[in-house]
Amino acid sequence: MPQITYRKALNDALAEELTRDENVVLIGEEVAQYNGAYKVTEGLWKRFGDKRVVDAPISEAGFIGMSVGASMLGIRPVVELMFWSFAYVAYDQIVNNAGCVRYMSGGLINCPIVIRGPANGGTNVGATHSHTPESILANNPGVKVVCPATAYDAKGLMKSAIRDNDPVFVMENTLLYGETWEVPDEEYLIPLGVADVKREGADVSLIAHGRAVLTSLKAAEILANEHGISAEVVDLRSIRPLDEETILQSVRKTHRAVLVDENKPFCAVSAQIASMIQEKAFDDLDAPVLRVCSLDAPAIYSPPLEKMQLPTPERVVEKVLSIR
Amino acid sequence: MPQITYRKALNDALAEELTRDENVVLIGEEVAQYNGAYKVTEGLWKRFGDKRVVDAPISEAGFIGMSVGASMLGIRPVVELMFWSFAYVAYDQIVNNAGCVRYMSGGLINCPIVIRGPANGGTNVGATHSHTPESILANNPGVKVVCPATAYDAKGLMKSAIRDNDPVFVMENTLLYGETWEVPDEEYLIPLGVADVKREGADVSLIAHGRAVLTSLKAAEILANEHGISAEVVDLRSIRPLDEETILQSVRKTHRAVLVDENKPFCAVSAQIASMIQEKAFDDLDAPVLRVCSLDAPAIYSPPLEKMQLPTPERVVEKVLSIR
Amino acid sequence: METLLEAGVFADAAINRELTPEKKINLLRQMFRIRRFEQAALKHYQAGTHMGGFLHLYIGQESVATGTVSLCGENDHVITAYRDHGHALAVGMSMNECMAELFGKTTGCSKGKGGSMHFFAPDKNYWGGHGIVAGQTPLGLGLAFALKYKGRKGCCLCFLGDGAVNQGVYHESLNLAALWNLPVIYVIENNGYSMGTSLERSSAFKNCLAARAEGYNIEWDQINGEDIYEVRAKTWKAMQRAHDESRPTVLEIDTYRYYGHSVADANAKKYRDPEEIEKYKKFHDPLQLWQKRLTEEGVINEEQAAALDAEAKAEADAAVKFAEESPLPEKADIFSDVYYEVDRQTPAGRTGKHFFND
Amino acid sequence: METLLEAGVFADAAINRELTPEKKINLLRQMFRIRRFEQAALKHYQAGTHMGGFLHLYIGQESVATGTVSLCGENDHVITAYRDHGHALAVGMSMNECMAELFGKTTGCSKGKGGSMHFFAPDKNYWGGHGIVAGQTPLGLGLAFALKYKGRKGCCLCFLGDGAVNQGVYHESLNLAALWNLPVIYVIENNGYSMGTSLERSSAFKNCLAARAEGYNIEWDQINGEDIYEVRAKTWKAMQRAHDESRPTVLEIDTYRYYGHSVADANAKKYRDPEEIEKYKKFHDPLQLWQKRLTEEGVINEEQAAALDAEAKAEADAAVKFAEESPLPEKADIFSDVYYEVDRQTPAGRTGKHFFND
Ligand SMILES: Cc1ncc(C[n+]2csc(CCOP(=O)(O)OP(=O)(O)O)c2C)c(N)n1
Ligand SMILES: Cc1ncc(C[n+]2csc(CCOP(=O)(O)OP(=O)(O)O)c2C)c(N)n1
Ligand SMILES: [Mg+2]
Ligand SMILES: [Mg+2]
To answer: Pick from A286, C38, C335, D52: CA 20 to 30 A from residue C321's CA?
Structure first.
């Protein structure tokens, strides 16, 4: 299978869906002529033109709200946020309009909109640019949230997101754009709401989403090589809808779980899942469900320090050893 | 002790702090001449005048951001949001400016701002007006969040919030404004970060915040009278900082916990606390920690239905019986 | 102040000259229907048995929705804020589905899930009904974007209040509308107050609020809302600009609300001089003025007008009966209409957990 | 196009006539310092060993921060966006603390926690350094509010870019500034581009961006940024309006950035015709023009100017050395400067759990 980058996988997904459905339109800052601040939309403006790939002014609330309105009439906007952090200036449009209009209209309306962009720390861009809002957005019934960890998942989930008839928020990662994975040439889709066991194991379940999955895989490597512990790595892929079954199956097998989450700890996705596991697999647990999150402060700039602030394989290993 | 309403308790707290510190200024829509959409600021404009009590246009991002800026120069704004739901149009100003500027300036700045207003469902005002954002805001290190359940707590917490030198978000409840409790005439403060055991019990801990505390007390009544179960009711009062010790003491005593939370379940405060309890009191638990939250859909309008959507004493009792 | 009506000038506009007597009478009928519907709603809200939440009455402003919407063709769309009953009836929604919505019944236009602020009828190009001030302004822009994208010759009439102009998203929308030549018309219904705050206390401006459009190089105009002929003539110009040039317009229509901001408005008579309210009812009431106009034109007489009013009242009473007799949603209905895919039970809707109570 | 400088007219403004030779030379020194500081920063960013994140260079725009800030008195405050190095040095921050911040060291102005976008010096009335486009605009309004509240005769200079004018919160701020008569001056540094998007592709307007102020009844003016005399003369008028009448102003200063949007800007030379960049460097460079002006005025000669430049370069090199030799924060420092009460270990800071990793 060809090896392509996470960035290229997203680019291919967008190109394929733009080709498949003329109602798909890309909107965002610098997505067209500039080819995307992170080059995810490279070449698409040249190929699909002004109508299908639209450069927007710095008015996130305006163009996201506009996209929600257009989606009510059957357009399928795929909006790029240069950083998901900028969703905060459009928060009302995202939560109240994209998220609630179907309900408030008694189901007369649906919003087939996708909002995508990077949501991660680790690039020293400071506190305001490093938010990971998957937890706060997934708090709202009516929206869907996915966090792909690999190029393969990114492409398959993005295509499903674009075809989904509800609002879907795709959270990518600038640290992954340049990483490569095997991705087949043939078209494929990955359904929302299906987790993926990225590594089989027997002694402990490492459960994560987004880049934390790669951190977990590194930790599993160390645990196997240095501690003789066999860790299973469960990649949630989709936050809402959530694949609870796969999580529970893994925990029922390993009887131990450590959640790895790049969000700040308070009310993070890992809190929801820890709460769910202890509720539904109480008697299967041989130890408390533990969490490894970002160190609980705004994202620090200093490059060597921010590295320590995010979950590291070492911190994951340490947690696992504490409940071995 | 005199009985006063939750509304009057807040009004007294504001009046006392306006009198105590000339840098305290109230800003918000209809807070002055109209006396407040919910009359919490009644009489304050008449008494303190235009400079201290300021009517604002419908520009939440603008006047909250303005208040954050003024707080950097030592003003102590107390901003009213007619509904906390409207924070969503000011979300960036609240999270990135109030919440991060201290950190990004290496501690050179602090923002002694209070944002207050009702955050609750149950009044049939629809999905966009019924958000309970305590969980999503408390996700951010740098901010503080309190949710008073009684008039006594509302006054004591509001006064502490105004004197606090960090941003504090006070979430009130329109269904409680008219309720009365005993409140002493003498001045008192309630520190942030201290929970309150509202009812002692031995068999199960009901842990809640805001109006859910009253739901829990009703449930405790029923459990005692109809099922011979002695429930302890722990009122968090403060979400961040959080009093984990009081929660854990209660659970170590009762060995069972049910969390009651008017937020939607996914990543709610109750998820954070369930996760914390199982982590820190794993061996003390005789049953999984369970949660009773609002039914997981946007707030429905239909009055009889919205009543069912919020946690009811009956649903709490049912959960408790499931783990008796 | 006396009424500003200068008969003639706007009546002679082409778009008004083509009005048949039937059409003119229909405009009067629509205004009676809006007023009677809301009077019935108010009465039953105060009875306190069925309705909850907010009830923002449009009474006094009927000519705005009636006049503007009367110009809409099959590709013209309408969206507004929470004061949405008038527009709903103007686009052709039935009193039954609207009243039932207020009563929170399954037969309501939004199945009792939206309430007063959230009336919708996409089949009639009516997109709500939105509770967050100015939150609808980029949505209206999006409807215009979709029309242009699909090559349909139409426009979106996006209504907002005089207080809503101070929400930033409205300005972002204006810039996008002008920059991308989108056929949207922002109609500012200036009733002089945002809740208890007068125009002067909420907005800084030159000339009028619509004039802010100048900064975006957008055409704008000001309209005396008590004259349906003027409302139609000037709105039509804007609609032609949208249809033919795909350019936006901002219109400011001066009007007045007789009741409080909402039924919950305790101070309705405090921040406004009662004489001011009386003056409007006496000299500027759009129903009376239109009826007077039609009488002068010999299009209608006293009895006929009274009959229209009586019909409207009867229709409203019947709607109340319909609403009262309609069923409430079931508890299970709380979980429908959240996700399209779940409602349709598509493969996507059947994959993964969507709801998290247990 | 040739330079627009018309000598004389602005040089004769009272505020400029009172400039002593020393002061004029100091303005040149400041501009050299800004340019040399950033050239050194760029060099070490590209070396790739210490810095991360963004680095937005101000080179080409030096006259704006230098000219405007030179007018500030003890109650005048400054706040800007992420392109904040020039303003930081102009208000008197040392190259050492600024360079150390870029290197993420504890000796940085923000202890290495803010980085390039977040320089602060409240003791010098400098409030940052803000990364969210236009996010600083209501903060600047708040500084003005505080000054007025405390009865201090001062103002806030709030800088923003030409792309930032399309964020709604800026418009909300304009309305509040005008409505409440707040002494804030919004200075739009119009360098023609927001990242890769030209002014024309991002904003619809009449005359210029500043003219949008008209809709709020706010005074505005447009300034040729390459002429420090013009920058000072027109900005001073606005500051007098703020000081004496407590009224806001919007100023648009035309300028140009020589480098990409940030060091990460891969397309810096794609969306702008290289000739355009060369033309600016050749005919409109604010340093060269000011040096030429001072030479004509006989205030300075070649060698003296060269010496100033050399001093600036030496200062920048020393700052790099200082930064390199400074210590990094400790892991524990991640948790300081989050809460004032915790940092001070007050009773409030010692009550309840503030951090949730365990
Ligand atoms: C963002 C936001 N802030 C505040 C409110 C509360 N609110 C509802 S209507 C209203 C007044 C709006 O006045 P105007 O725009 O003039 O419309 P009118 O009510 O006069 O029709 C306010 C403050 C809201 N719904 N949304
Ligand atoms: C709300 C928000 N949206 C997008 C960005 C990304 N961004 C940073 S700077 C910039 C361009 C701003 O251009 P301009 O306002 O002209 O200032 P300049 O860079 O020219 O100084 C963009 C889009 C951001 N930081 N914040
Ligand atoms: Mg109004
Ligand atoms: Mg620019």
So the answer is: C335
